[in-house]
Write a structure and sequence with these properties.
The protein is an all-alpha fold. It has 2 domains: 100 residues, Tetratricopeptide repeat domain (Serine Threonine Protein Phosphatase 5, Tetratricopeptide repeat, Alpha Horseshoe), CATH 1.25.40; 87 residues, no CATH class. It is built from 9 helices and 2 strands; from the N terminus they run αααααβααααβ. A two-stranded antiparallel sheet has the order 1-2. α8 packs antiparallel against α9. The radius of gyration is 28 Å and the shape is elongated.
């Protein structure tokens, strides 16, 4: 048989075994799933997908040390910029933490990003504060901004006032601009001081 045809048959066999492994895993038939993974690795010892799936099975069956090794191998065999590398790295980190008895609730909260704070404030003043769990300040700022928007749209001092000279409109616009800037600057400063989202990390981050 030509080499090219042999390689194609081998690739098809690997794909078939991987499909069966995933199906068995979904059915919680983990012994059969593991057998398929090991058959794949006999055909291709550097198959990162089979190694990652094997790690999943090992972790589910309580063999954490083996899972750590499988995830590490899957990560090391994958290109650094590939989704497979990122997935195996996250699982490897989570398994290492679990091996050390560290749960997600034991990890420090994730720092808020100044860039995300600015982006949220640009969308709606007070939103960044709300997302950073400063619910009181965020709620007040969003409430003020909503009231100002309604005044601008429907009150005699808003856009309707432009035809009458516009002084009330300009004053209202100045107040809105002030609130907008205050919310933006406050969100940036809070995030820079280490403001946090209190949702803990998943345990997969490194």
């Amino acid at each position: 048989m030509p080499v090219g045809e042999d390689d194609e048959l081998r690739r098809e066999q690997i794909e078939k075994l991987l499909r069966e492994a995933y199906i068995y895993q979904m059915r919680n038939e983990l012994l059969q799933a593991e057998q398929r993974c090991r058959q794949v690795l006999e055909l291709d010892a550097s198959n990162a997908e089979a190694l990652e799936l094997l790690g999943d099975i090992q972790e589910r069956t309580g063999r954490l040390e083996e899972a750590v090794q499988s995830y590490r191998q899957a990560r090391d065999l994958s290109p650094v910029d590939s989704p497979r590398y990122a997935s195996a790295e996250r699982k490897y980190a989570a398994a290492v933490l679990k091996q050390q008895g560290i749960s997600a609730s034991d990890l420090p909260p994730e720092p808020a990003s100044p860039l995300m704070a600015i982006a949220a404030s640009l969308v709606f003043p007070g939103l960044a504060q709300w997302l950073m769990n400063d619910r009181t300040k965020g709620g007040v700022l969003m409430g003020i901004w909503l009231i100002l928007l309604l005044l601008m749209a429907f009150s005699p001092w808003g856009v309707q006032n432009i035809e009458r000279g516009g002084w009330a409109f300009l004053s209202l616009a100045a107040v809105m601009a002030s609130v907008y800037i205050v919310a933006l600057v406050d969100a940036y400063q809070v995030s820079r001081r280490g403001g946090v989202r209190r949702k803990p990390k998943s345990g997969w981050e490194v």
